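S.,

Sequence below, as promised.
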Amino acid sequence: MKARIVALPGDGIGPEVTIAAQQVLDKISSQFSHDLQIEERLMGGISIDQYGVALTDETLADCLNSDAVLLGAVGGPKWDDPTAKVRPEQGLLTLRKEMGLFANLRPVNTHPKLHDSSPLKNDRLKGVDILVVRELTGGIYFGDPSCRSTDQNGNIRAVDSMVYWDYEIKRIVELACRLAEDRQSKVTSVDKANVLESSRLWRQIASDVADNNPLISFNHLLVDAAAMHLITQPSNFDVLVTSNLFGDILTDEASVLTGSMGNLPSASVGESGPGLYEPIHGSAPDIAGKGIANPIGMILSAALLLRHSLKLEQEAKCIETAVNLALNEGCRTIDLQAENSLSTHQMTEAIISRLEENNIA
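The prediction came back faster than expected:
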């Protein structure tokens, strides 16, 4: 297969983990005789420094014309001024919107050898295999323009709007049901319908979709209860579908189940066109440049790229198997509370060597 992949390393540890994913993709390309062409472009803070904007029109066009996009991370203290008109995150939000990426898929799987890396008791981590389906282009991040005003007494008022259309809810819940068919056929829809009007619409539409999918075991859960259940009984979840804001928060919470946010990948997909693949962690400026970042989330995001955008299921499973083998044999980066931790490069090499040594391909 020949495919064109645009890599957006971004800021902080983004370039370090992106290199790791590229090296793994190069190995897969060689072993399976594919021609995966990876072209790097700037996005985020580094693009602001170079071009004055977080995402140039040229880079956006390159992403839209690619087969898939691989993203590291954006942001950092240098661009953290909340009053700035141009911020790194604007590039990511624009990219998601323009690419039509309405669904963010975040698998959360616990690894038996990493149970001690989690603050939770081991018995709560057994059998955890969750797929969070997060709506990505609606909700409070894309509501009516945010505003701030001051009244005659000098009191400051800020407004953000959580806006959802019925079709936005329908398509994300339908996708969750389709994905559940290949899993345990269980979907939990998370909202705040006891308070928010947008959530009441969410529950109404989700219920309609559930009625049209009688083979799916479907239930509703308020977001505060979902947050509690993710910690107290995570193995009860199969597919969890929710709005943009709630999905953002809940998946960060769920990362503690795996031992580190650095382990979690994600795939952002639309109805057609290229997908966007990135680890769920941020730019981690405190460790940027130290060579100690965990590359697993990025490497597993590359596996999702192969699966969802290029339809290379065997190749995706090869990467996932190599990661599991490395973890089984004690390979750890410092975030996984290892006494003798590996660097980003060493962890990447450990995964690549298991692609080779075990003849996974």
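The radius of gyration is 20 Å.

Coffee later?
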